[in-house]
Amino acid sequence: MEFRRDPRRRALIPLLPLRLLLIVNSFASSVTAKNTVVVHERLSRHHDVQVVETNRRGHATRFAEDAARRGIDVVVAYGGDGTLNEVATGVATTDTALAVLPGGSTNVFARTLGMPNDALQAVDLIVDALDRNDISPIGLGRANGRYFTFHTGLGYDAAVVRRVEQRAALKRYAGHPLFVVAALRTWAFDYDKKRPHFSLDFGNGNTVDNAYFSIVMNTNPYTYLGNRPFDIVPTTSLSTGLSVVTFTSLAAPHMLRTMASALRGGGVRDYPWLDIRTDVRQVTVSDSRAFPYQLDGDYLGEIQNVNFEFVPNALRLVRSHP
């Protein structure tokens, strides 16, 4: 592609505009009609932009799949982590790239990329990245054939997400406090802390048989509490295998010490109640009884068997960073 220099912005501008599809989840916590108009205007200065809005689960994936079939250059996902996951699923393994605009309450993946937690600041970074043609492949996790961008939770945290989604109307206005309350109530009343919930099989006879709660991570941190990251395994990245952290106890002192360690930064310590694996390419989680699981922050129900794998170079990502 040939470029010209724009003296006003000191950037290289493509001679031919890119074809963009902006997928908007207007129900996401921080998406507003005014911001959507501004985002569209800024993307449209040098590119051909179409806008569509989602209105139900799975809608963003269908939009993204159709965009890839039509040869759209970039799909911009403007919503929360659930919208991002759907769009990533729709364009994975295609030539269509993904750009991320934070519009949810937590925006884990966007913030992991170093983006500001504000769409109007982030859109300028996307524009600059498109000007530079800064697009490169990243790896994704896959659970039973479905891709995820940052993590999948099995057991306790999935039960927390389930409780939050039961109060979805409050999420837009009290996202982080709602999660804290849900985590406390789930631990106290909703989740069995006396028996293991599943086992993990890493192959070659390498297993964890007494698992209460596992996180399968494609990026680090695991999530954010306000501006504080839950720093679990800092070496986890989009170019390495998955990190798998399993709790073999949910005793209150163990949970509190692990949380404190994660909030201090530098990753959690190698406590006796934690099993930590890095650069995992494949793992199977199973039990005779169904257990809850969530993927990129969306509760997906209960299941008895989940096969995880790391898929390198699965997605072309617009590298929008400061």
From TrEMBL:
A single GO cellular-component term on record: plasma membrane
GO terms of molecular function: ATP binding; ATP-dependent diacylglycerol kinase activity
The keyword ATP-binding appears for this protein: yes
Domain annotation DAGKc: ranges: 15-147
TM stretches of this protein: none
Keyword Cytoplasm: no
Pfam families according to UniProt: DAGK_cat, YegS_C
Keywords: ATP-binding, Kinase, Nucleotide-binding, Transferase
Record-linked PROSITE patterns: DAGK
SMART domains associated with the record: DAGKc
InterPro entries linked: ATP-NAD_kinase_N (IPR017438), Diacylglycerol_kinase_cat_dom (IPR001206), Lipid_Phosphate_FormReg (IPR050187), NAD/diacylglycerol_kinase_sf (IPR016064), YegS/DAGK_C (IPR045540)
Listed name of the protein: Unannotated protein
Protein species of origin: freshwater metagenome
